[in-house]
């Protein structure tokens, strides 16, 4: 599994149920990486999507412990076992796309992390684990700095040792 996230300079990822920043080039990067693949997210992440709808051109899996929860256009898994079964014959890349609890829960199962580093303080309420401080993760690739509306950002790839 892989994961993909945009983080502020404190590894913040969200506030008030939304992303901290909306950078078109980051959205394009996210789309290019995940289209045609499998995305795994928590219920709150799905509900934060436009109209609360699953992402197009991807297989969407939503994790929820709520036995009654359903999501039109997405498969709902309630346990790790259900998710493992859903992915057992997957021939596509699997991306963990949030939120914070889901990132933390599946970080150990991932081998690659695509992180957009945004050089700003988004006053976040929820955070991604700072993998730059974890010895099992190493930075393997980093783009040049880019800018959008005064926000500087770069794309980074981390791989598990």
Low-confidence stretches: none
According to DSSP, the number of beta strands is 12
Distance between the termini: 14 Å
CATH superfamily annotation:
Dihydrofolate Reductase, subunit A
The CATH topology annotation reads as: Dihydrofolate Reductase, subunit A
Helix content: 10-25%
What series of H and E elements makes up the topology? Answer: EEEHEHEEHEHEEEEE
Under the CATH scheme, the architecture is 3-Layer(aba) Sandwich
Outline: globular
Q: Please state the structural category.
A: alpha/beta
Q: If you compute it from the alpha carbons, what radius of gyration comes out, rounded to the nearest whole angstrom?
A: 15 Å
**Total separate domains:** 1
**What count of helical segments does DSSP give?**
4
**Mind summarizing the main beta sheet?**
9 strands, mixed
| CATH class (first level) name | Alpha Beta
How much of the sequence lies in strands comes to 25-35%
- Overall pLDDT confidence: 97
Short description:
By secondary structure, the chain is an alpha/beta fold. Helices cover 20% and strands 35% of the residues. The strands form two sheets. Strands 1, 4, 5, 6, 7, 8, 10, 11 and 12 form a nine-stranded mixed β-sheet that branches. A three-stranded antiparallel β-sheet has the order 3-2-9, with no helix packed on it.
Explain what the structure shows.
This protein is an alpha/beta fold. It has one domain (2-149): Dihydrofolate Reductase, subunit A (3-Layer(aba) Sandwich). Helix content is 20%, strand content 35%. It has 4 helices and 12 strands. The chain has helices at residues 24-34, 43-48, 80-87, 100-106, and strands at residues 2-7, 12-15, 18-19, 38-42, 59-63, 75-77, 94-96, 112-118, 126-127, 137-142, 146-148, 151-160. The strands form 2 sheets. Strands 1, 4, 5, 6, 7, 8, 10, 11 and 12 form a 9-stranded mixed beta sheet that branches. A 3-stranded antiparallel beta sheet has the order 3-2-9, with no helix packed on it. The longest helix has 11 residues, at 24-34. The mean pLDDT is 97.
